[in-house]
């Protein structure tokens, strides 16, 4: 009986230990997956956080971008741009920089900085972009992040931009006040998505607007159903199709602030002439995670090559190809050459020029004189 009692006690202890281990595995999974945040369990899984456009201090931004050799004013989708006073520099993702056709400049020396996840990143390029927020335009120098797998469109406006626009951040109301009266002639209040203290725990804040909260839940449920239909892992990154707004309806409201504020005595920042062209939509195709068949693999849309112009021109000449009269201006003709150069391996005839794939290449060594029918 003592032996049976010890066996039962050992079984109970193992069950308790197994439960602790399971909890530790779930906690480790939560820490590894940036899309899973809540500690509250639901149907055996962690709740997914709200989409980017509903996170704190996401603002609507207008950018002067190059499209077919012409400068346009485009409006980025809500959620792509984040104002962050904790960032020492302003950053733009490689995919968004390519979509906007920004001119990259080489840094005097590569810059290494720490990321929010605790890792480090080295960047070698930056770009000067004219950015407008609620009619307040500034020329902003942003570091171009290196190209990574599953890159997403993102723009982070850090301390340099906040200083340029004399920003005041109000956490309780989740609003920004920007603008220089001497330069811009006004101060502007920007209201972003509001949050409140959570009812059950204070690990993170909850959406204050019940309608937005319901909309977020509906979007998350729809994404989960779509991922199950396509057999996509739940921790896969979803990527938006187009970096530009399809409509002017956003969650960010702007209103003028006319009273004199005490923060108007800061140093005057350089005023840049905003674009006189009205902002309009520009169609730019982006990567899509949706496929017409159930598979975990996704097609990859390549970014235009950044090789020197002389190299691309030399390659195009060697191809002995010609561009028709339907492409009249020189800049558009060069962009077409860039596109062809980016996919030059499609016309490759040597194995060394072909891109790497997951298919095996079998080489057979034949003796001299071997006939095909052998």
TrEMBL record:
Give the start-end ranges of region Disordered: 231-301
Pfam families xrefs = RVP_2 (PF08284)
Q: Which stretches does UniProt call biased (Polar residues)?
A: 270-295
> Which InterPro entries does the record associate with it?
Peptidase_aspartic_dom_sf
Q: What is this protein called?
A: Uncharacterized protein
């Amino acid at each position: 009986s003592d032996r049976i009692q010890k066996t039962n006690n050992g079984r109970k202890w193992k069950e308790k230990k197994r439960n602790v281990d399971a909890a530790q595995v779930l906690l480790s999974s939560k820490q590894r997956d940036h899309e899973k945040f809540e500690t509250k369990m639901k149907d055996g899984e962690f709740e997914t956080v709200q989409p980017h456009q509903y996170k704190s201090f996401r603002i609507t931004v207008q950018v002067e971008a190059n499209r077919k050799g012409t400068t346009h004013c485009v409006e980025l989708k809500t959620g792509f741009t984040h104002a962050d006073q904790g960032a020492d520099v302003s950053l733009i993702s490689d995919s968004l920089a390519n979509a906007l056709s920004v001119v990259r400049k080489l840094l005097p020396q590569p810059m290494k900085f720490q990321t929010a996840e605790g890792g480090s990143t080295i960047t070698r390029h930056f770009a000067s972009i004219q950015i407008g927020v609620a009619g307040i335009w500034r020329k902003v120098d942003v570091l171009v992040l290196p190209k990574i797998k599953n890159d997403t469109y993102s723009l982070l406006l850090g301390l340099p931009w906040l200083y340029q626009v004399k920003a005041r951040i109000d956490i309780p109301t989740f609003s920004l006040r920007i603008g220089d009266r001497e330069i811009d002639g006004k101060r502007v209040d920007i209201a972003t998505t509001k949050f409140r203290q959570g009812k059950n725990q204070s690990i993170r804040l909850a959406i204050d607007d019940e309608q937005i909260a319901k909309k977020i839940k509906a979007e998350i449920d729809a994404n989960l159903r779509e991922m199950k239909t396509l057999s996509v892992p739940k921790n896969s990154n979803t990527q938006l199709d187009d970096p530009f707004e399809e409509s002017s309806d956003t969650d960010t409201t702007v209103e003028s602030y006319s009273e004199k504020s005490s923060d108007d005595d800061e140093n005057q920042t350089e005023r840049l002439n905003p674009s006189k062209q009205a902002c309009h939509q520009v169609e730019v195709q982006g990567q899509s995670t949706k496929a017409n068949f159930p598979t975990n693999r996704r097609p990859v849309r390549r970014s235009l090559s950044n090789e020197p112009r002389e190299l691309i021109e030399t390659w195009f000449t060697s191809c002995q190809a010609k561009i028709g009269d339907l492409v009249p201006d020189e800049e558009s003709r060069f962009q077409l050459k860039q596109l062809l150069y980016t996919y030059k391996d499609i016309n490759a005839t040597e194995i060394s020029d072909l891109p790497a794939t997951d298919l095996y290449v079998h080489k057979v060594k034949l003796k001299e004189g071997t006939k095909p029918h052998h």
